[in-house]
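User: Structure tokens for both sequences below?

Assistant:
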Amino acid sequence: MTAGARPGNDYDVIIVGAGTSGIFAALELADSGLRVLLLEKGSDLEDRTCPLRKGAAKCLSCRPCRMVSGFGGAGAYSDGKLTLSPEVGGRLGALLDPAVLRELIDYVDSVYVRFGAPDRVFGVGPEVDALVTRATLAGLRLVPVRLRHLGCEYCGRVLEAMRSHLRDRIDIRTRTNVVEVDCDDEGVKGVRTASGEVLTCRFLICAPGREGAEWLTGIAGRHGLVMETNPVDVGVRVELPAPVTAELSRVLYEAKLEYYSPTFDDRVRTFCMCPNGEVVLESTGGADPVVSVNGVGYAERKTPNTNFAVLVSTSFTEPFHEPIAYGKYLARLANLLSGGVLVQRLGDLLSGRRSTAERISRSLVRPTLAAATPGDLSFVLPYRYLTDIVEMLKALDVLAPGVASAHTLLYGVEVKFYSGRLELGPCLETGIRNMFAVGDGAGVSRGLVQASVSGVVAAREVRARA
């Protein structure tokens, strides 16, 4: 039994979700003397095996999804980009003092290093300024970001070290699905699981991750918590020869570039650049999963290609307020036409023809995602999105010649669902006293670092009140 433990199902703190934000909350509370329970509906780290990552041609719709659920959350299968600048990765800058946020980012970075993250940091030095100037001349805004890259291999090792540290300090229960939060006028009282078990607590930290965003939305609706609608990002995953973006990758690892398309004045951006990486299938998980596309990079294993997403941000207005449903609709349409995701050469898209296996076999770029089906993205993505994407690729070609080559591959669709934003206080407390909401699933963060920071913020407030 852990330090400060007592019999039964009564805890000081319950954390729902063992993704990045939940793990960092647990790390902060592990030696506090409080009885802490970390609940996760997916499997433990060593039991997470995704068929897609083992070569399955299509998503098997595992329940819960092993790629995004389980100890480590979606981060366990990511390539572990730690963006160490407060300007990107979430909206904590709107809730915390800038100096405090910078200090917390440095703190969580030190925790990652303590548990095995590599030493090198990208995005520093005089070469960054030169790239910013060149991007400006191409009509692009380059956001300089300090970045530490773990790689898929280090992600697993870091999470294993964190899991080992927590093992004897708190209670951890996987394959436990929380279905309801219990509270009254005085505040949170506990949670109920799918098996009917009642677990009581003084403090509750909800850290459901993006896959659990709909769960948190349901909790908010039933308890009258205020939520705002976030935008949805829709686009493609671009794959090209690694030398095309080699300079950007060497200095920045990931180039975060923004562009406003001349035709529609839409915001378009690059996301998740994976130098010498590979394109992979990804399931959204949840009760209604769809398959989209993503990219990963490795610390040691290399491919001859680099991939990155080009995404168009769309904020919907009244009366429509279902951006996640819209994004899933587009992904499902690609699933319908291809059995998974589509791949098309940029030259074929510009010529108004579908790509075929024979045309792709003649391309200079060999696809790293063999399961993608050659086809025509114009049957899936609206004209507006395709126009935005093509215009940005042409601007990128000025910065990095070769991006807009006819041989460049486009995989579709890639969709980023950003959860509805709960109305939260500076310590990330909800409208229910002593109930906190953290991480991507609460709409607080959009990446590992700010998710980690949010877990730390909530846990420190719990310690101060306990």
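Moving on to the next sequence.
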Amino acid sequence: MKLFLTLIATISTIWSVGAQSIREQIAANPNLAGGIYTAYMVTEQKAVAAPRGYKPFYISHYGRHGSRYQTAQEKYDLPATMLEQAHKDGKLTERGVELMRRVRIIADDAYMRAGDLSQRGEREHKGIAERMATLYAEVFSGRNGNHITCFSSPSVRCVISMNAFTERLKEIHPKLELTRHASQHDIHITRPEKNMDIFYKKARQMAKDYQQQHTEDRAFIDRLFNDYDYAAQLIRKAYNSSDTHLFIGNMHDLAMIVQNFDNLPELHEFFTEEERYRMWHLFNIRRYLTYGPSADFGDIRNQDGKLLLRDIIERADAVIEGKATGEVATLRFGHDSAIIPLLAIMHAEGCDGRLAFADIERLPEVWCDSRITSMSVNVQFIFYRNKKGDVLVRMLHSERDIRIPVESDFYPFYKWEDFRSYCLAQCRPEAR
């Protein structure tokens, strides 16, 4: 089999848990403080050949929607209006005036677009599809069929992501036939969140309380306003809070989300290196408690990941056993709320860190949202078969190989029977 083509690195940063700490990585590239707002990174991959005699014949995939706007319009409008009021009252520093100017540009761009996919988000999915179509051209050659089944969350940003992805696939392989679904009927595999509802409010409140207690924002406010008492009163009123920490949190969100767009002004310079890291850390805690494999809530949350994993196994079985005639790929499009538990329940390397809330300050050592679930994050399972009918599978996380605790003599390829048995074991009710 020909060696895989080498991906061109559009961003030089490559996640490496052992090489640098997340603090060092954020210092080198402030966008990595974005957590779930981190734009998709395409990184160079080494050429990998499948074991002799094996050829790819099927792909199973789950991808998060692409880069998007903030999901709440008030995250744009509130700080813009508040800063403009302070400027009218003569209470902004020179730096505060510049922040106000940039926030207004960002807010005007986002008007009536809350939650929408950005143009970059479309490009991300087209790029992923192009690389899939090129690297695994044999899958789409028509030798084993030409049908692809697609499932999307009904969310518009997910549907457009699906359309962008499949449009690019068909441009490269015009004979492909697509069946696309985007309804509540398939929500258990596109947005599995049933069990999250059991604990979400409690987990989120724990995270918010912790953030309030551990946010240091006096220096940030003093750089923007020339009257701290005025600023504190204005912020508390605007955010309907007895504290001021929501303002720096809002500004951090805006500073991170702009990387998902073309030609919007950056806000990184308004934060110190320590403030940027600390805000990432506090939001990483929130994502971990509400979506992740925490010791406090992870056992419940992981149940949702089992629904998606079982669907992946069952649809692959149908293809391998010849029950899904002509099916060469199954593509799913949804949200980070599905990717996080899927990777956790599979114990994918770097994605299953388990900590109790009492040890939460150690979280950067074991779990990082920016690494696990950027915009357009995807998990791909590439299936290979030889003439004897033996099947191998390769697992990719955002187009990079990722290890799971299954023995293999030829990693990154796993024997399907070993991979399948392991996954089904993780789907048992008692499995963590």
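User: Anything stand out in the second?

Assistant: The mean pLDDT is 93.
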